[in-house]
From TrEMBL:
Entry protein name: DNA-3-methyladenine glycosylase I
Gene3D superfamilies linked to this entry: Hypothetical protein, domain 2 (1.10.340.30)
Organism classification: Bacteria, Pseudomonadati, Pseudomonadota, Gammaproteobacteria, Oceanospirillales
SUPFAM superfamilies xrefs: DNA-glycosylase
Residue stretches in coiled coil: none
Domain of life assignment: Bacteria
InterPro entries in UniProt: Adenine_glyco, DNA-3mA_glycosylase, DNA_glycosylase
Amino acid sequence: MTDSKQRCAWADSAPDFPDYHDKEWGFPVADDQRLFEKLCLETFQSGLSWRTILTKRENFRLAFQQFDFNKIALFDDEDVEDLLSNAGIVRNKRKILAVINNAKRAQELIAKEGSLAAFLWRYEPNENTLPLPETQTTCKESVALSKDLKKRGWIFVGPTTLYAFMQSMGLINDHAEHCFMREKIDTARKAFERP
């Protein structure tokens, strides 16, 4: 991007990052489908660059029924084979099976807890206990959330994956101190009604 705004260092590392950084990353989200989508995309991102996933995001949305977990929970072997032959997504069988498994676990969690958002936002870290932005890849809350989800049968939900999820979905404001978005995210988080 050619403007003079100061952003997080990572936001200038790829052409599609500034837009994602300025319009999505860090804004708080309470919509179950969007939260589930992000958990799935973080699963696919594991071991890869976020740019790879962001570039293919629309393909993922088409392939996974807009990340409607009620539809994904019904995927069968034929659907898995279709996904494995889809060149528009990351064709990793373990990750595809993880998304289908996690869709079923999401249904169970919602039946028990009321919503995915209500459950996930219980793990929102206290901002005063976090170190400086952009200095860590996990926190005690992402570790605790990982353990809780794994106990409930979720897979591909390690503490680092969940910390990245928390950053992107607004549970943490991890924009750099100098970043022009930090104040905007603080404002959005203050106005956000926790589920």
